[in-house]
Design goal:
CATH topology of the largest domain in chain B: Rossmann fold
Number of strands of chain B: 5
Helix content of chain B: 40-55%
Order of helices and strands of chain B: EHEEHEHEHHHHHH
Shape of chain B: elongated
Largest interface: A-B, 46 and 42 residues
Radius of gyration of chain A: 19 Å
Number of domains of chain A: 1
Largest sheet of chain A: 2 strands, parallel
CATH superfamily of the largest domain in chain B: Response regulator
Helix content of chain A: 55-70%
Strand content of chain A: under 5%
Oligomer: heterodimer
Structural class of chain A: mainly alpha
Order of helices and strands of chain A: HEHHHE
Radius of gyration of chain B: 25 Å
Strand order of the largest sheet of chain A: 1-2
Distance between the termini of chain A: 4 Å
CATH architecture of the largest domain in chain B: 3-Layer(aba) Sandwich
Structural class of chain B: alpha/beta
Number of helices of chain A: 4
Shape of chain A: elongated
Number of domains of chain B: 2
Largest sheet of chain B: 5 strands, parallel
Strand content of chain B: 5-15%
CATH class of the largest domain in chain B: Alpha Beta
Strand order of the largest sheet of chain B: 2-1-3-4-5
């Protein structure tokens, strides 16, 4: 599959629909791993959003005034927002949908069942 | 065992004829007319998932309610998600279609109904992995929103080269270099060249 130059593309509603219709079924172990990773990503996004809110409210926005350990996060958050305005806010809304969809699509492995392999489509 | 009832839609006559031949040669399948509504599986062949092709897929999915096996030249991540939304449960690259593979996809689609097979679920999980990498990692050169040409120019600007020197080094005209810099600074709302270089360094792009 061609993923070159693909922009971040949110499809939380689609995943919710697929799970609700029973079309998306994911083996429990894999679903749990992906949910954990998504929750970790969501925590990073919320942290960056908090940083941006603090930065926006700061009377004198000087990177030199930011604690050294936080400076990289400030740059990441602000630069990311310049490159793709609104992307962090969208992710904070969309990622919980993915998490909920995976919870609904989660299916315990049947006795004797091995994890599925996923051959490439393209 | 009952034969799987299949309808075929193809955008070009050659594909239609070739795929019809493959489907008709399989004893486990029955090929019905494209206008049939009571089918187990719909096979759709399109060169690319254009807007028209997506509209046709949506219409077919609504009218038949059957799972769709899609044959296409190439598919992007966004197109894959659109296809899945249209009840596509298997995607075959056109160049790799054989009677055996097509029959396998069709019978699997009929057996599983609209439940997506593992390989398609795997592609959807890859979409989630890419999304996570994009959203949680640092902004790096290949997903910074900058083109390779812009990054080349930024690197040389950071080394202190002027427009003429950058143009000579990259074999561009000076006008091209100016256009690259102008486009980049406008798009990223950067005030000047120094601002652009500072951001690129801080963000780890150069």
């Amino acid at each position: 599959m061609n993923t070159e130059a693909s922009p971040p593309y949110f499809a939380g509603e689609l995943f919710l629909t697929l799970a609700a219709e029973g079309r998306l079924v994911i083996e429990a172990v894999r679903a749990d791993e992906t949910i954990a990773e998504l929750e970790s990503t969501l925590a990073v996004i919320r942290r960056r959003l908090r940083i941006m809110a603090v930065w926006e409210a700061a009377p004198d926005r000087r990177l030199d005034d930011v604690p050294e350990e936080m400076a990289p996060d400030v740059v990441q958050a602000l630069f990311g927002e310049q490159l793709a305005p609104g992307r962090l806010e969208a992710a904070a809304i969309e990622i919980p949908k993915y998490i909920e969809a995976l919870r609904r699509a989660r299916r315990p492995a049947l006795p004797g069942e091995r994890p599925e392999e996923n051959p490439k489509v393209f | 065992m009952d034969k799987v009832r299949v309808a075929l839609q193809a955008t070009d006559p050659l594909s239609r004829a070739g795929l019809a031949g493959l489907l008709q040669s399989r004893p486990e399948l029955t090929l019905l007319g494209a206008d049939q509504r009571t089918v187990d599986v719909l096979v759709v062949s399109v060169q690319r998932l254009s807007a028209g092709a997506v509209a046709a897929l949506r219409r077919a999915a609504t009218e038949t309610g059957a799972p769709i096996v899609l044959i296409t030249e190439e598919i992007t991540e966004a197109e894959l998600l659109t296809a899945v939304d249209c009840r596509v449960v298997a995607i075959l690259p056109r160049a790799a279609v054989t009677g055996e593979r097509l029959a396998h996809s069709v019978t699997a689609a009929a057996g599983g109904g609209a439940i997506m097979p593992p390989h398609l679920v795997g592609e959807l999980l890859k979409h989630i992995e890419r999304l996570q990498r994009t959203m949680s990692g640092p902004y790096s050169a290949n997903r910074s929103g900058l083109t390779a040409r812009e990054i080349d120019v930024l690197r040389l600007m950071a080394e202190g080269l002027d427009t003429h020197e950058i143009a000579t080094k990259l074999c561009y005209s000076q006008r091209t270099v100016k256009n690259v810099v102008y486009g980049m600074t406008q798009r990223l709302q950067l005030r000047n060249r120094s601002h652009a270089v500072a951001y690129a360094i801080r963000a780890g792009i150069i």
